[in-house]
Amino acid sequence: MTLLVISPDYASHLLPLATLATAWRDAGERVVVATGSATTGIVRSFGYEHTHLQLGRGSNPGVIRAEDQPKGEDDALRGFFAATRVGMVETLRFQAEARLSDLMWEPVQAARATQEVVAALRPDRILVDHLAFSARLGLTAAGVPYGDVVLGHPSALPLPGSGEVYGFPPAWPAAFHPDADELARLRELCERVDRSFTAEWNAALAELDPSAPPSASAFEEHGETVLLNYSVELADERRRAAYGPAAFLGSAVREENGPDVDTVIEWIAASDVPIVYVSFGSFLSVRDDVLARVVEALRDLSSSGSAVRVALAVGSADVSTLGSLPEEWLVREFLPQVTLLGAAAAAVTHGGNNSVTEAMTAGVPLLVLPFSTDQFAGAAALEEAGLARALDPNAAAPSELRAALADVLALPAGARARLAALAASLRDRPGPARARAALLRAPSTPTGDVRP
């Protein structure tokens, strides 16, 4: 059997997809990953074959910096970072406006390139990142079934008839109080983006397959097999009913090894003082102003008698802005997240889906500081379940962060029991096994007649 994995050229997208594919690799089957050149090293590290497929202008092999991006993409990235400093609605508005032009990069060309990959490889099963819209367009036009992996919060795939619109959070954490008029304007913009994107999708689809029926909402389109990289225990009732429990993969926790991991394991073993892991992921580590307040809160927490050790992944942040860092802290640009979560008492995160699902699998409570996209809905779900505190990263003072961290470290017994049960469920049947079982239940991929 041959499994084809299709991913944008971003580490945060490829890593969970590559992890899901380990179920095929470990069964002795062939895995081929179609993505760009920036993440080839990740593909090779999993032992997979790589075939080139460019699905966008930008790329991110691990830690993103605007100056490393092609012209145009660099300014867009700087604009996004600037919007996060204004606030949540401004960030969501910036992202919505950007979607008017950047969701499908060269859609017909990328769709045909996807079809060429499929025709050449003739895979038995296909896993595709849901946000690889141009690739999914090519598969749809060719009538090729695939497993559609939604890597973010499930609201990244709006439910038909639910009133949801792509880009507009269905829920907010309690600490956020968006203005009603601003929200109304944001929703109107997101609805306009939906119409524009659907028109773009339909125009490209008509060029690829003139006989294909147009879509009513391209954001609601999905593959024959929907796979949500999310815990069914945290999902809302509507999605459980719409997709069924088998669609929820739980998590895709990657393997970590190598000398850097060994060094971190030694640091973990050097003391029994509780560890707090801090990371804002590959994009939002640029917000060193927020990171500096988190660092101050953690220093204050230690000095107040609640001793903690800190593992701090600074990413693209300017370390000189963070003030004095205790010698016993572990501070690196990049840290093996899964390894550290396995030993952490708590974690501070921007609320990205990889961070959330990996923390839940490890049974680690969170302080979530969401900045954008689906991070708000994910933080709200965790907060409602009693497994996290969520604060506004632009507004929370060090004293508020310190108090929230103390709450997370002292999670009540009932919430800790729920978290332990969730973690046990996620570890008992990992995401790769669930993904393989779901795709094996689906028809094999008929690729013999695919023509770009």
Written description of the protein model:
- This protein has 452 residues and is α/β, with parallel strands linked by helices.
- It folds into two domains: 262 residues, Glycogen Phosphorylase B (Rossmann fold), CATH 3.40.50; 170 residues, 3-Layer(aba) Sandwich (Rossmann fold).
- Strand 2, helix 3 and strand 3 form a beta-alpha-beta unit.
- The chain starts with a strand and ends in an 11-residue tail after the last helix.
- Helix 4 packs antiparallel against helix 5, helix 5 runs parallel beside helix 8 and helix 7 crosses helix 8.
- It contains 18 helices and twelve strands.
- The radius of gyration is 21 Å and the shape is globular.
- The longest helix has 29 residues.
- The mean pLDDT is 91.
- A six-stranded parallel sheet has the order 3-2-1-4-5-6, sandwiched between helices. The chain has a six-stranded parallel sheet with strand order 9-8-7-10-11-12, sandwiched between helices.
